[in-house]
Design goal:
The structure is a homodimer. By secondary structure, chain A is mostly helical. The first copy, chain A, is built from nine helices and no strands. The structure holds a DNA duplex.
Chain lengths: 198, 198
DNA sequence: CCTACCGATCGGTAGG
DNA sequence: CCTACCGATCGGTAGG
């Protein structure tokens, strides 16, 4: 199943979901098209599985890195790091997750959307915490959430592993931009060198 | 032809290009499918026409609003205004322009991409001017271009005409975010009330 | 997991 | 701009 998913991700990323035929997937893993139906009910469910898996993994990864971080500045830094790491490491899946939502049934769409909302809400609550503590200056929480997430997500559309910047430099640069948006001047805000004492 | 394009835009926006059949387009404008071939060579060219038109209109609109604006702060404000106006007013086309690039031939893709590059370059040169005059504080021009354009373009994915904010408020809010990113503190930077004397 | 197949649909064309 | 049509392909299934 792992090989089938991987083949599906590659092909859907390259050709889009409607133009990816099950015969292409089958050929890539050395099977006959009909045999794929032992692994999913229909073509739509295959797409749904791929999207659900990546969204769930993202949420789990975020939970792991966010636990015990009650300080909004530290939490925000962790969020940005997780986001950029995940969206560059698994860029094809996250790309599919944005482009192929129309390929789902209404019910599947609602389900995936709920996962996306949970993720977005995590970010929003960090902003709210930071505003309460006075670390961030935010006027409209919702618009600011949209703006920052769009900025961070876009990285996956152009990022290449052998680019002129390391992933660490990228994270540092975008962290700086985000803190500028929030007018956060705390000395530990953007620098990536200081180890938090936990 | 205008009706055919409009029907195509609506359908491609809703179902995606590969899933939009020429029979659907024909039905929407009260024609037979075969008759559409009097208006374009093949399905791909139809998509190409739609994309090219919107990209060209955007560039023309930008040129119109940018001429004679040598001051980087004023130019940036004009750019943001044009961008948000266009991406909300013609959101379906701009959505298609980002989602359906795979539907083009290599040659068509390069052509559309060139138009996109010209637009991006306009923004980049405003940033460079502002850095030279000292109005903007920018470290990496390219990353900052990507980040800001992604932020602004994202608006078209959630904007609804009857939302809680007017388009003017939206422009003002995002203008403020952009100037924060650039650490631009000039008094006329974000306020939308002061009429430029030209 | 394979063979063999079906019904449906689609882009595109001929000829008018 | 229509009628009529073709070749190709696709998702999905039966039966093993």
């Amino acid at each position: 199943m792992a090989a089938i998913s991987e083949a599906g991700i590659d092909l859907i990323f390259q050709y889009g979901f409607p133009s990816t035929t099950l015969r292409m997937v089958a050929k890539k893993v050395g099977m006959q098209a009909g045999s794929l139906y032992n692994y999913f009910e229909d073509k739509q469910s295959f797409l749904y599985q791929i999207m659900k898996r990546s969204r769930q993994d993202l949420l789990e990864e975020l939970d792991r890195k966010l636990t015990g971080n009650s300080d909004p500045v530290r939490a925000l830094k962790a969020f940005i790091e997780v986001h950029i790491e995940f969206y560059t490491e698994r860029s094809k899946e996250m790309f599919i997750g944005r482009m192929e939502l129309r390929g789902l049934t209404d019910e599947q769409f609602r389900d995936i959307n709920a996962l996306r909302d949970r993720y977005e809400w995590q970010f929003t609550s960090i902003l709210e915490n930071g505003r309460r503590t006075g670390d961030f200056i935010v006027d409209d929480i919702r618009l600011t959430t949209y703006a920052i997430l769009a900025m961070l997500t876009d990285i996956s559309t152009w990022y290449r592993p052998r680019g002129r910047m390391t992933k660490g430099q990228l994270i540092e640069y975008y962290t700086n931009l985000v803190f500028r948006i929030l007018r956060c001047e705390r000395p530990d805000a953007t620098g990536g060198s200081d180890k938090p004492a936990d």
